[in-house]
Prior knowledge:
The protein is an all-alpha fold. It is built from 10 helices and no strands. The protein is globular. About 10% of the residues have low confidence.
Amino acid sequence: xxxxxxxxxxxxxxxxxxxxxxxxxxxxxxxxxxxxxxxxxxxxxxxxxxxxxxxxxxxxxxxxxxxxxxxxxxxxxxxxxxxxxxxxxxxxxxxxxxxxxxxxxxxxxxxxxxxxxxxxxxxxxxxxxxxxxxxxxxxxxxxxxxxxxxxxxxxxxxxxxxxxxxxxxxxxxxxxxxxx
Length: 180
């Protein structure tokens, strides 16, 4: 029976920067699900999202030395890499061409308005971006991506009570922005 290793964020960063394969495996095992959901939320294609996830982890491996803990948490840094890679993918010519060449049946439902209204279309993400980074990440993970408070606590390695308090504070601030 193998003993599960748990790293603190600073240990994990140090081992990643030293190219520790065990730390990288730990990173993948513990963060790939969260990053995949972020990517899939942007890309909307499961196979392509998995490809982007692979690219993201290659970038993380290659750029581990560039991580600066004074600028934010490791997860936030990885989240930005995943988000940027996803946006780059959907902006690429090959992706744009593949969307133009989809079968008619795939386009019929979205053209008919059957697709659910996207959060970006009603401007909520713009409002959320007015919050501090620590609140914005929690709102995104909780409300836009559907993670539970317990999952967020484990994912970001912060106490559950802190997650609940920050989410409540973020919602109060959002209410203040929406209803001045």
